[in-house]
């Protein structure tokens, strides 16, 4: 499934930023970056679309603008085109599909396409963009684009850390990016497959002011 293009303005590094996110950042409003891997790789359709809508609604209910991030046809997109809470998929699609940004149609494309979208970490961005591909951004890639456009807060569910065999696989990329980033990261907990002891050692071995 090839996501349709939107009328978002182009920001740093060719990133398409939705008008709503752009306006909120310009006035110093609260904007929260959200990853898209959980939509494409975390759960099946239609639960993934329902969850994405609910998460964005919660962000809006608390006075902030949600900025779901994904790469569509080689173009990184930041932000949703809907400036209100939608109570159903039909309402969401009707009201969010005509404005700029990651439209309702494109968000549904993420959910329906699922694993057809490449799971895209920061190290994969260049390849996905250069090849004109579709990428569902992980923690590291989402934080990268959020930082580039000036979004200071990132929220996700379970975060990847150091796996139980991390000394062989060199896992811990997401954790390293979170430690080094200037964003405030809010996470629900560790993802499955992580070794908590090794995660703590990984954090302790790197200077950080975050908790």
Describe this protein's structure.
Pfam families: Indigoidine_A. By secondary structure, this protein is of the alpha/beta class. It has one domain (9-162, 183-191): Indigoidine synthase domain (Indigoidine synthase fold, 3-Layer(aba) Sandwich), CATH 3.40.1790.10. It is built from ten helices and nine strands. It has helices at residues 19-26, 37-41, 47-61, 89-96, 104-113, 125-130, 139-149, 166-169, 173-180, 196-204, and strands spanning 9-10, 16-17, 31-34, 65-72, 75-78, 118-120, 135-137, 153-159, 184-190. Strands 1, 2, 3, 4, 5, 6, 7, 8 and 9 form a nine-stranded mixed sheet that branches. Strand 1 and strand 2 (16-17) form a beta hairpin. The longest helix is centred in the N-terminal third of the chain and has 15 residues, at 47-61. The model is unreliable at 83-100 (pLDDT under 50).
Short description:
This protein is of the alpha/beta class and 211 residues long. Helix content is 40%, strand content 19%. It has a single domain, classed as 3-Layer(aba) Sandwich (Indigoidine synthase fold), CATH 3.40.1790.10.
Outline: globular
Helix percentage range: 25-40%
Unreliable spans are 83-100
CATH topology heading? Indigoidine synthase fold
Helix-strand sequence: EEHEHHEEHHEHEHEHHEH
- CATH arch. level architecture: 3-Layer(aba) Sandwich
Radius of gyration: 16 Å
- Which percent range describes the beta-strand content? 15-25%
Largest sheet: 9 strands, mixed
Distance between the termini: 40 Å
Compute the number of helices.
Answer: 10
Assigned CATH class? Alpha Beta
The CATH homologous superfamily is named Indigoidine synthase domain
DSSP E strands, number = 9
User: Oligomeric form of this entry?
Assistant: single chain
Structural class: alpha/beta
**Mean pLDDT, rounded to whole units?**
78
């Amino acid at each position: 499934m090839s996501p349709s293009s939107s009328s978002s303005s182009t920001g740093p590094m060719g990133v398409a930023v939705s008008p709503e996110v752009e306006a909120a950042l310009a006035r110093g409003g609260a904007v929260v970056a959200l990853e898209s891997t959980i939509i494409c790789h975390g759960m099946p359709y239609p639960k993934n679309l329902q969850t994405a809508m609910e998460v964005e609604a919660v962000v809006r209910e608390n006075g902030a603008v949600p900025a779901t991030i994904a790469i569509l046809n080689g173009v990184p997109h930041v932000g949703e085109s809907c400036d209100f809470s939608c109570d159903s998929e039909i309402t969401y699609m009707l009201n969010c599909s005509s404005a700029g940004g990651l439209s309702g149609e494109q968000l549904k494309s993420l959910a329906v396409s699922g694993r057809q979208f490449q799971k895209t970490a920061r190290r994969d961005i260049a390849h996905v963009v250069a090849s004109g591909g579709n990428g569902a951004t992980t923690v590291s890639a989402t934080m990268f684009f959020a930082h580039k456009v000036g979004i200071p807060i990132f929220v996700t569910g379970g975060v990847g850390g150091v796996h139980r065999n991390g000394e062989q696989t060199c896992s811990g990329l997401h954790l390293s990016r979170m430690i080094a980033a200037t964003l405030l990261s809010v996470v629900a907990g560790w993802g499955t497959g992580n070794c908590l002891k090794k995660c703590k050692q990984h954090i302790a071995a790197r200077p950080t002011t975050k908790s």
